[in-house]
Amino acid sequence: MSTLARKKGVGAVIWDYLTTVDHKKIAILYLIAGGIFFLLGGLEAMIIRIQLAVPNNDFISAGFYNEVLTMHGTTMIFLAAMPLVFAMMNAVVPIQIGARDVAFPFLNALGFWLFFFGGVFLNLSWFLGGAPDAGWTSYASLSLASPTHGIDFYVLGLQISGFGTLIGGINFLVTIINMRAPGMTYMRMPMFTWATFVTSALILFAFPPLTVGLIFMMMDRLFGGNFFDPALGGNTIIWEHLFWIFGHPEVYILVLPAFGIFSEIFATFSRKRLFGYSSMVFATVLIGFLGFMVWAHHMFTVGMGPIANAIFAVATMAIAVPTGIKIFNWLFTMWGGSIRFTTPMMYAVAFIPSFVIGGVTGVMNATAAADYQYHDSYFVVAHFHYVIVGGVVFALLAGAHYWWPKMFGKMLDEKLGKVTFWLFFIGFHLTFFIQHFLGLMGMPRRVFTFLPGQGFETGNMISTIGAFFMAAGTIVLLANVVITTVKGKRVGNDPWEDGRTLEWAVSSPAPEYNFAQTPLVRGLDAYWIEKMEGKKGLTPAEPLGDIHMPNPSILPFVISLGLFVAAFGFLFHNDHAWGTPVGVVGLLITLGAMFFRSIIDDHGFHIHKEEVMEAEKKGAGA
Amino acid sequence: MANHTHVQNPKVDVQYRRKKNAEEMKHQIVSFTLMIFLTLIAFFAVGYEGFSAWFSVPFILLLAVVQVIFQLYYFMHMSHKGHELPALFLYGGVVVAFVTIWAFLTVVWI
Ligand code: HEM
Ligand SMILES: [Cu+2]
């Protein structure tokens, strides 16, 4: 919390977070909400693994299995991984570029609340007739036939949270383009900022196809449309294309920030400049671009024909080249460095072999002819968990440990951190390595049980045991968070002592205004340069003065709440007379809040020079 | 970049700016006239019996592209300095969308 804040009651703190437009507090909101959804998705994963531990199990029914499976995938991708990535971006990027906040603080809050209400809406399906059950890809041929309202919750919930993501992405684009401190040229931006930049561009181009697909699906399911119904002249394959035109870039939206996080960690704990910085930037941009040309590799078995399959296969394999460039750059960053094996560094080192395995199976999947064998088998499940867990989740855990002191002012316990790491690392490989072989032996994915005597027993049991290791790791992490919060010691600006980028030059947590004086950036790794010249702080680019800040506002919350209410109304408008009126009221709430936002003049406020000096004396020198 | 410092010396600027504005106004009027003219041609191409759809559809698409370019460069000031990034993103989006649709038309056939 800001050094200006006084001790506050619980109510005031809650109100503070409901109305905040400060990127650091929004980061904490994303972290908490994303963390809770991560636990929920994890719980669903445990249910899946328990059901599959032994053949012919009846721990849960087939129908319920489909719901749990669908919600696991949907929750993990949209409600856990995405917001946790946004948590890292919000916590770090504005400070890394020497800015006082993002370009549009109000929109930043709006993005969070849209995601939050979308996620809550989706999960309420559990209590209102049943969750979606057509897989996280929700192929139209399945989802149009689903009898419950589950799919409608999926469609409307993802639509709302998708708006939030799109807003967040645009905000970061504008921020990085316009708000860099003097001297911070594009080629001096830290690698995580670069990753955020490219990711945001991917969000900008990838989310609209999803929006369109979801609107079509909404029309078909709720308003009598026929976009995907072949009996009425529609085409069910269009959904698959729209979904994957979004879906493949989405996997890069998740993994590029992960690459960025690891790039920071490798450089910091090797105490070396990132090897091949410019080739890293180039590779990131190239991956982002190629990511749009490969969507149909998810549809090799749909029957597009040999020419389409061949073209998409080759395009997919091409992405392995820039990815390989990155892997070698990380290895060379460690080469000859004086390496410290802190918890974040252990995740980073473990990430390299894990992700390479995922990449290799990716290229195997991309071989279209061979994919006829792999498709819809546990081999694919193993592949994408190697990239998503071995890449994205490792990165989020690493980033959480790395930036925890910057976000909360206290270091997570290193011993417990390493316990978490080992449990998670061993559990991860136990769970998913064996699944490659289950898949090759013919075990199909998305089935609720399997028969004895087909050779699947041992593999599935090992896989379930691995899942319990990961669960144990997560529990240790939670304990670590609680212990740190209660007992942890406050730390100074640069708790890892080897910080290179600007976020380590300000107090932990950063003051409300981030920088008392906007810094002058004199090269890549701006803070490291100053440290090497024996300076304690940054070179300021402006005299000390009053700092202009945006006012907090409850409107983002209200706008999102309105859409949440509207979604409820329209979801039930075919069953209940109150449906349409409730929907309209919801929309009016949203539009009304937007109207107020437009007509109320909000000039923000100033933190005066004297207050800043006072705060700096107390905080920044710590 | 973040800090544009507006060096403003009104006396020197005024004359230069007035000239610049007049020039711009001229461009806008010329392109506006051209755009109306192009629209008329498009209507004519569709209405004229002698042209088959194989000619008129690509033809009016071409006219549309020209109009978009006029719109972007003369009315939305994309030719001015400081618009490099919006241009990059616009063209990036155009390329991505084009390749996607092109793939559908040539190899995927939905
Ligand atoms: C090294 C680059 C990669 C290649 C070559 C690759 C290739 C592929 C291919 C061809 C498939 C389709 C398999 C099938 O359904 O038969 C697939 C599935 C998948 N990949 Fe990747 N991939 C790569 C990286 C990633 C990354 C970085 C992520 C996520 C962070 C990811 C997530 C997924 C997911 C979620 C699926 C399964 C989708 C589904 O059918 O439900 N992939 N990958
Ligand atoms: Cu893909």
UniProtKB/TrEMBL annotation, chain A:
In the record, biological process GO terms are: electron transport coupled proton transport; oxidative phosphorylation; respiratory electron transport chain
Q: Which GO terms describe its molecular function?
A: cytochrome-c oxidase activity; heme binding; metal ion binding
GO cellular component, as recorded:
plasma membrane
Q: In which pathway does it act?
A: Energy metabolism; oxidative phosphorylation
Q: What is its main location?
A: membrane
Name the job this protein performs.
Cytochrome c oxidase is the component of the respiratory chain that catalyzes the reduction of oxygen to water. Subunits 1-3 form the functional core of the enzyme complex. CO I is the catalytic subunit of the enzyme. Electrons originating in cytochrome c are transferred via the copper A center of subunit 2 and heme A of subunit 1 to the bimetallic center formed by heme A3 and copper B.
Record-stated family: Belongs to the heme-copper respiratory oxidase family.
What's the name of the protein? Cytochrome c oxidase subunit 1
Q: What is the native source organism of this protein?
A: Anoxybacillus flavithermus
From TrEMBL, chain B:
Q: What is its main location?
A: membrane
Enumerate the InterPro entries for this protein: Cyt_c_oxidase_su4_bacillaceae (IPR014257), Cyt_c_oxidase_su4_prok (IPR005171)
Q: Name one Pfam family in it.
A: COX4_pro
> What GO terms fall under cellular component here?
plasma membrane
* Residue ranges crossing the lipid bilayer per the database entry: 29-48, 54-76, 88-109
Keywords of the record, alphabetical order, are: Cell membrane, Membrane, Transmembrane, Transmembrane helix
Query: Where's it found, cell-wise?
Result: Cell membrane
Name by which UniProt lists this protein:
Cytochrome c oxidase subunit IVB
The secretion signal range is none
Per the record, membrane topology reads: Multi-pass membrane protein
Whichever gene encodes this chain, its name is ctaF
